[in-house]
Amino acid sequence: MYKLDLPVDYKEAAAIERRRKMEEHRQSRIFNSKVRTIGIDEQAIQQQLSDKKEQELYEKNRLEAHAADATRNDLIGLLLEKRQGEDIRELNRAEVEFRQLHQQPESRREFDLYDPDALKKDKPARVHDDDPRCGISSLQKFEGEDLNNPARIKLQQEQKKHWLEQQKRELEQAKRNQDMADKLYQLKQKELDQRAMELQEAEEQCRRAINMATTDYNKALDDEQKERARLKRQQDEDDNATEMANHIFGDILTENPAVAQSAFGPHRVITDRWKGMSPEQIAEIKRQQEIQRQEQERLKQEQDRKNDEFDKQRVANARAALLLEREADRKRRDITKQLADENRRLSQEQKAHKDFLYKEVYTNPPTAAYFMQWNTTSR
Questions:
Q1: Of the candidates 105, 132, 198, 224, which lies 20 to 30 Å from 125 by C-alpha distance?
Q2: Which residues contact 31 (CB under 8 A, 6 or more apart)?
Q3: Are 48 and 56 a contacting pair, CB within 8 Å?
């Protein structure tokens, strides 16, 4: 007969009990509306806003301080830029030299993974255990066999210890080198600051001397300009007196008609000496003006006739547009009436369809057992 009283799996029973307790605890948290909160922490948000404003104020003050320092440090930065470039080049050269001496690919721990000569350096598959080529079937190693495991583990531990000690020494040496470099850099910074202050003082003295020289030069230029203006005024007064005398005793004011005659013909005159037209010339001009007035009157009558024709055409077009608009309104009213009839028919069909659904199809109301299946688990 079969034995049915099987032993209890305590691990599985413990897992089932643990999941049952977790489910009960989760249901107590989810179904309890007093424990489950929905919303945001207003106090925390206000605190975050206050912290953000303080951070922005601090950042603004910090930026203003940096701007003030930047104005003062620009001159010093120009002096330090060249020396900094030289220091960077020296550091790069030292870094390249260090890599060439102490960081060759052969000295890396994982070099054996990508060594191009790995196959050349590899040992034969089997060199002991009565080698010659390990038997008839040439099986070189069985599953689970590892004869050199203790020796290899010991060698790896010693190698790892050696690497750790070497790394520790390298880190200590690098820290000492960095400290020495920082100390030298600080000394150099002090020296450059002192030199910058001396250069600034020398620049101030030079600027004061330049300002004094510029003031003297401007004063001399002002005196020279005043003297030049006085001479120019004297020259203008002399020229004006000469011009007035020439006008008073010249042919222009004496109105001599002979001076206006041009050497190129009797029909041409000199404009700057001409004193006016003769009565015959004035009469000819009036005759030409009368001819132009008559031509303008004829053109105006022609334009009035065209405007009348245009007004008549515009009135006819407006009457035709009015008739077309009335026809379009009549068609629009017909289309609107057809749409209203169609919408009324569709509304009746939709109402009949809803009555069919709610009175004929959806006639199976849910029972209490249907609602009892909800909120039985937290998943």
A1: 105
A2: 375, 378
A3: no
Looking at this protein, which amino acid is placed at residue 62?
Answer: R
Q: Which segments in the chain show pLDDT lower than 70?
A: 1-8, 33-42, 44, 122-147, 247-263, 265-267, 270, 272-276, 378-379
Helix ranges (H only) for the chain are 10-30, 42-102, 118-121, 149-249, 279-356, 368-371
In this structure, what token pair is assigned to residue 137?
């079937």
Q: Of 218, 181, 196, which is closest to residue 72 (Cα–Cα)?
A: 196
**What is the reported pLDDT for 5?**
52
Residue 67: per-residue pLDDT: 86
As given in the structure block, the two tokens for residue 167 are: 């790394």
Check if the beta carbon of residue 197 is closer than 8 Å to that of residue 79. no
The rounded distance, in Å, linking the Cα atoms of 113 and 76 is: 51
CB proximity list for 125: less than 8 A, separation 6 or greater: 134, 140
* 36 backbone dihedrals φ, ψ, rounded to 5°: -80, 120
Name the token pair of 34: 């007093």
| C-alpha dihedral sign at 179, 185, 191, 196 | negative
**pLDDT tens-digit series, residues 220-243:** 888 888 888 888 888 888 888 887
Tell me if residue 372 falls in helix, strand or coil.
coil
